[in-house]
Automatic annotation (TrEMBL):
Domain UBP-type: 1-96
Organism domain of life: Bacteria
Name used for this protein in its record: UBP-type domain-containing protein
InterPro entries: Znf_RING/FYVE/PHD, Znf_UBP
Residues of the signal peptide: none
Length: 113
């Protein structure tokens, strides 16, 4: 399991890296437990968290939402517990959901999965 969870890997940023690199937006954030990649959840239009798993094989994510500590294994489709990961363990508490605020369309609820 050492290649599946690296508690020392810092998160890659405060938001979904692929959405920020383009013009995307997200509902919630997920953090790869192996490398720290922060991607958007499966409710988000682009589902970059799942795409990261598909492209890297890193199977375990942790919620990157304030107050949430659960892990999820894409292989088993099961949520569970895991070790404490390197700080920070969530996006900033004052970051809106969905985000980034200036990119979220008015009809965002119609666009989520």
């Amino acid at each position: 399991m050492s290649n599946e969870i690296d508690p020392t890997a810092p998160p890659s940023g405060e938001g979904c890296q692929e959405c920020l690199a383009g013009d995307g937006w997200w509902v919630h954030l997920r953090r790869c437990a192996a490398c720290g990649h922060v991607g958007c959840c499966d409710s988000s239009p682009a589902q970059h968290g799942s795409r990261h798993f598909e492209s890297t094989g890193h199977p375990i994510i942790q919620s990157f939402e304030p107050g949430e500590e659960w892990f999820y294994d894409f292989r088993t489709k099961q949520a569970g517990q895991g070790p404490e990961l390197a700080a920070p363990t969530s996006h900033p508490q004052d970051q809106p959901v969905p985000a980034p605020a200036d990119r979220v369309p008015a009809n965002w609820r119609e666009l989520i999965h």
